[in-house]
Amino acid sequence: MLERVSGVFVKEIKVIFREKRLLAILILQPVILVSLFGYAFSGEVKNIKVAVVDEDSSDLSEMLISSLHSTDTFSISYFTATRSELMELIRLGKVHAGIYIPKGFQENTNKAIEVYVDESNYNVAATAISKINAMTASLSKKFFGGLEVEQRFVFTTKSRMIDFIAPAIIGVVIQMLTLILSSSSISREREEGTLELIFSTPLSSSDLIIGKFLAITALITVDVFIVVALAHYAFDVEVRGSLPLLLFTQFLFLTGTIGVGLIISALSQTQLQGIQASMIFGLVSIFLSGFFYPLESMPEGAKTISYFVPLTYANIAFREVMVKGNGVEVIFPQIVVLSVYTLMSVAGAILALKKVMGGGSSV
Amino acid sequence: MNILEISDLTVRFAEFLAVKDLNLSVKRGEILGLLGPNGAGKTTTIRAIFGMVPYEGEIRNYASSVGWMPQHSPLYLNLTVEENLRFFASLHGLKNPKERVEEMLRLVQLEESRNRLVRNLSGGMKQRAMLACAMIHDPELLILDEPTAGVDPPLRMNFWEHFQRLKDAGKTILVTTHYMDEAERCERIVMMRAGEKIAEGSPEEIKRFAGEETVMLWVEDMKGSFRILSKYYDVSLNGQISISVKDAPSELPKIISILEKAGIKVLKSEIKRPSLEDVFLRLMEE
Ligand SMILES: Nc1ncnc2c1ncn2[C@@H]1O[C@H](COP(=O)(O)OP(=O)(O)OP(=O)(O)O)[C@@H](O)[C@H]1O
Ligand SMILES: [Mg+2]
User: What is the residue-averaged pLDDT of chain B?
Assistant: First the structure.
């Protein structure tokens, strides 16, 4: 058993290292993808045109407007009288954001300012909202002090898109690489005829799956380091929580995904089939994992499917650790789910292979 | 006695019957040749033995270990010859593979090419590497699917000398081939056509079973002899008299006595047996 598993392990690593194309994908893909996302989302957005409606004309509203003036994130282009004018300006594309300060804003702690943003540019919109939140937060501290104000303004100090989106990007990139490597691994051997040959030896399905699983795990773990290092050093993505915890959850995520890839590969007749099936799985995962829409706003059916997608749990766990700085006590459920996922998918791959190879040979 | 017994083996690919009710047993210690034209079902039979195709019927294996050399030498193209050997050694759980790997490299004369990727080997060299991998664990039963396809004549000789040595050492070999000289070296032959067994036996038996033998006579009175013999036999005239019979050695005395009774003297007689190739061709035409 041990000789066979380690034999498969060594063979897999060698084969992948000799496959220049595959190796290039493994090394270049994370670099390219992270850089692409990084550049797209990391630049600080400046000079967002805003329109302001000030119905309050109070000290507080004055202060808010002057702090809008003082930052180079915004440039105030219009003061308008009504909220509908403000919205019209956004609709026409004259401004990207509008700030409505209601009457009684200063007096009444229940009154909140309203921020309108042009949703067509996600990056600008997110920056505008978070920046305004940050400004009102610091204002509220100055003006009121104390605890109750904290509740009035929801805020985050993050002002860059990439900090929000990096956890999801990391998940998607790792998933992609893992699927590429695992989903063609067995079907390729089937196509080339080696699968039959090795199954005529005492090799069992579990020997092969475990050997391949370990080899792919080792390789993708290297990718995890590349991705995290690149995000951190090149794009200043912050990991607020524990780095080892983050790496550990990523490890669990990639092992589960390898299991899925190997199941797909065991059931595919050709490499192409394997790649196609894993692409469908990959895309469905991305759509349903909360990458595009928050889980909460998904229709019931989609939400149910998303519970079977490891990326869903990975996204939550990565975000909790990276953005919110939470620890194992918070992401414990995700860790459990991902661990179970790994065990089940690897067992599933062994069973699938056993089934298609007819439980080995009659000799 | 038998090391492998196949009874009523039928293999279907959708509607197509690739093997029909095949009964075949391999005796311990023999070299059994499986012959037949392309598409006869030889490879399919072998794949069934290894459980690689769904089949009906029964396959019983009494060998403690089996080695398989598939038809198209599916080795790992991106591994070297030696790495392939080591990998197969590990699959068989060999405790001390190093020596065995060396032995195999020497046997198939690939010592010099041990560090070349299989991808870059010539066709015949791939066959040799495959044979080495199939034998790495010194199996009791060796199943070889066209082991010498693409192998040059001197090496083909080497291969067969080695098969003979393995047999002498008590191993059993089931081999398919399209070469008749190789078939002649088998103790027994099973001929297949369109998924069915059409003949079985030693090369001698097969020739006798399927092929008509020819008695050739040189006589003083050709015309007279022809007239007389035509009453009893299938005779033709072509420089000498040729008579097709089933069993020439037993017919020859009878023929001579018929002619002597008619007063014709036989100058010379000869028996011509068909080659395996003749038999093969005839069987395939039927
Ligand atoms: N996987 C398959 N699906 C459908 N038909 C198949 C399959 N494998 C083999 N066949 C068919 O079964 C028949 C027997 O093929 P097989 O490979 O056993 O012949 P063979 O005797 O080994 O021929 P050759 O001398 O060319 O190697 C052929 O008609 C072939 O087309
Ligand atoms: Mg064949």
Answer: 91
The pTM score is 0.78
Q: How far is CA B192 from the centre of its chain?
A: 11
Is residue B241 included in any domain, yes or no? Answer: yes
Q: What share of chain A in percent tops pLDDT 70?
A: 87
Calculate how close chain B gets to A246, using CA atoms only, in Å: 35
Please give the distance of CA A163 from its chain centroid, rounded to a whole number.
11
CB B40, CB B172: distance < 8 Å: no
**Do B79 and B175 belong to one domain?**
yes
Centre of ligand 2 to C-alpha B225, Å, is 49
| Inter-chain residue contact B74 with A194, CB threshold 8 Å | yes
Q: What is the pLDDT of residues B72-115, one digit of tens each?
A: 889 999 999 999 999 999 999 998 899 999 999 998 999 999 99
Using alpha carbons, list the distances in angstroms from residue B196 to A362, B11, B18, B235.
21, 11, 9, 33
The answer to whether the CB of B43 is under 6 A from ligand 1 is: yes
pLDDT at B45 > cutoff 90: yes
CATH number at residue A146: 3.40.1710.10
For B175, what's the count of Cα atoms within 13 Å in the CB-facing half-sphere? 29
C-alpha span between A255 and A348 (Å, rounded) = 13
pLDDT digits (tens, 9 = 90+) for B8-20: 999 999 989 999 9
Q: Considering only CA atoms, which residue is closest to atom 16 of ligand 1?
A: B41
Angle at A319 between CA A316 and CA A323, to 5 degrees: 155
**Same domain for A73 and A100?**
yes
- For residues A170 and A78, state if they share a domain: no
Distance B18 CA to ligand 1 centre (A): 7
